[in-house]
Every structure is written in C-alpha cells, then in structure tokens.
Amino acid sequence: MQEQKILQVKELSKGVESIVDVDWRHDSIRSFVVPEIAASELPAQDSKGADGEQLYHPPEIIPLFGISSKMAPLFQESGYKKGSTLSSSEVRSVVINYVKTNELVDETNKNFVKVNPILCDCLLKKSEQDKISKLKWDDLLSRCLDQLQPFHQVTFAGHEPIVRKGNIDPINITIAQRSSNKKVTIIKNLELYGLDPQTVANILQQKAQASVTVTTLPGTKDRAQVQIQGNQINHLAKLLLGMQLCVTPYH
C-alpha cells in the first residue's frame, strides 16, 4: 500500500514504525464498494455472545465533504450552503448538474468542461486563472473534492449517525523497542470504532498470555492506549478482523 501511495509509514522514533498518513482520496479507496448482500442470504446470527453479552458490530463509516465559503457559489444552485456536508456521490451529482445547467460541456470535445468565472474562483489557483480555460471531467471533480473540507459520518447499530470534522483516525498499531531489546505492541484510537480499550486489553491478555496495561493517551482526556508485551500483531489481527468481540460500545 505504501508503494501505491495509499498510506505513508515513517519511523517516528528508533524501532517504531507508524502509519502517519492515509490518502482517503486515492482511487483504490474511493472506488471501493461494500458488496450488497440481501438479508435473506445472510446466515441467522445471534447478536449476543454465549454469555449473554452483546457482540461487537463495527460502525458504518462514510467520508463526507463540507462546503466552505469559497466553494459555496458552486453548490448554491443545488440548494446547499456553507457548512453543508455531502457524500462524494452527492458532490459528483451537484457538479455534473451545475455543468449541464450552465451549458459548460465543451462542444468540440465532451471530455472537457469550460471554466466559467465561478469554476475559476472555486477551483483554480491564482497562477492558473489566466492559463486554464478548460478542465477534464476527472480533473474537475478531483479539484472540487480537494477544495472541500473533510468530514466523516459514523453510525453505530441502533444509534443516530454522528458527523465529525476531519478524517477519522485509523486504529493505530505500533511495535516499539524497549530496554533490553524487548518489544511492546501499542494500540490507539479503539474508542473511535466503538471498542472499549479495557475489554480489548483483557482479551489480548488471555490470548497472548502477556502483561497488558491501559493508560491515558498522551494529550487527551478521554482516550486510552493499550500496551502489551511482545509483538502481538497476529493476535490483534485475528481479534479485530474476526470481530468476535463482546464489548461495551463507545458512542
């Protein structure tokens, strides 16, 4: 993924490699579609574990795009205003409708869109405004998404959607080197996905038979990080990917 420039990994400190950036606008991510499966095709599942606890269900996470004052003129014809949030498909629909309504499709080559004053102010840099008179469709849409503010919507089963500013942080997993050449696995951002750090710590301790601590994440008041002795990537991957967790959801 790093070679495809989907994510960027850096050694922030000696012996610790961390994911420092995720390109949420990369074609591989933006084109990913969760397959729709009819409810009748799914096996019947009990939402409770063997001991009666509620099984973990991952939230639905949708990237959204917020309209800034600079971009508002492009969206106002469709009834949106500054501060409105839209999905990428809604942004695409608004842009296409705007182009067609204002007859901006190039007559000689329909792969291009003519840049009018509003598109010029919204999408072009000052150095480009006297040089570019047309944009390809994909360039037009890409520039539009780049100029919008990132938001995301998180929906937990049985709860109303929560919209937050910025991109959601991924669950951060790092392997750090400690004294005497010992390694520890550090896990952060579990709460963002409705996972209770203490519950995850308890399950990891049982599976790995290793010492585990849960501490406050530096620089935060209500977030925690889990630290477990040794390289526990395999145990953690099975735990998270299998989703076989009985947890107290965070909302």
Structural overview:
The chain is α+β, with helices and mostly antiparallel strands and 251 residues long. The protein is 25% helix and 25% strand. The protein contains seven helices and twelve strands. The protein has helices at 27-30, 72-75, 88-101, 117-123, 137-147, 197-208, 233-242; strands at residues 7-13, 16-22, 60-66, 85-86, 112-114, 134-136, 149-155, 162-165, 172-177, 183-188, 212-216, 224-229. It has a four-stranded antiparallel β-sheet. The radius of gyration is 23 Å and the shape is elongated. Residues 36-46 and 244-251 have low confidence and may be disordered.
In short:
This protein has 251 residues and is α+β, with helices and mostly antiparallel strands.
Task: Reconstruct the topology from this structure.
Elements: E1 7-13, E2 16-22, H1 27-30, E3 60-66, H2 72-75, E4 85-86, H3 88-101, E5 112-114, H4 117-123, E6 134-136, H5 137-147, E7 149-155, E8 162-165, E9 172-177, E10 183-188, H6 197-208, E11 212-216, E12 224-229, H7 233-242
Antiparallel strand pairs: 1-2, 3-4, 3-7, 5-6, 7-8, 9-10, 10-12, 11-12
